[in-house]
Design goal:
The structure is a single chain. Helices cover 0% and strands 51% of the residues. The chain contains no helices and 11 strands. Strands 2, 4, 5, 6, 9, 10 and 11 form a 7-stranded mixed beta sheet that branches. The mean pLDDT is 97.
């Protein structure tokens, strides 16, 4: 059975950094693109970034230059490095496997002083 388990969220001050992780199981991880999607309080889910099976990356304009998505196929894990955090980055961050539309339960990132 497919599982996506996020970790790494927390409370961080503006300007700080976090690295989110998503451990995947139940499918051939290396064969599929993976994405991060976030949902701010009271708002709809917004796509953040995608990494293809080959390692090509794409980002939402709002996070370009601050967020970096990466993957380790040996560990079946996708990462999201978040730098220069802003209060508007506060959200639940979800790991997503777009091909079959699998989702993790999310990890909360709160940016506040």
């Amino acid at each position: 059975q497919v599982q996506l388990v996020e970790s790494g969220g927390g409370l961080v001050q503006p300007g700080g950094s976090l690295r989110l992780s998503c451990a995947a199981s139940g499918f051939t991880f290396s064969s599929y693109a993976m994405s991060w999607v976030r949902q701010a309080p009271g708002k709809e889910r917004d796509w953040v970034a995608t990494i293809t099976s080959r390692g090509d990356t794409n980002y939402a304009d709002s996070v370009k230059g601050r967020f970096t998505i990466s993957r380790d196929n040996r560990k079946n894990t996708v990462y999201l490095q978040i730098n220069s955090l802003k209060p508007e980055d506060t959200a639940v961050y979800y790991c997503n496997m777009p091909h079959w539309n699998y989702w993790g339960k999310g990890t909360l990132v709160t940016v506040s002083s």
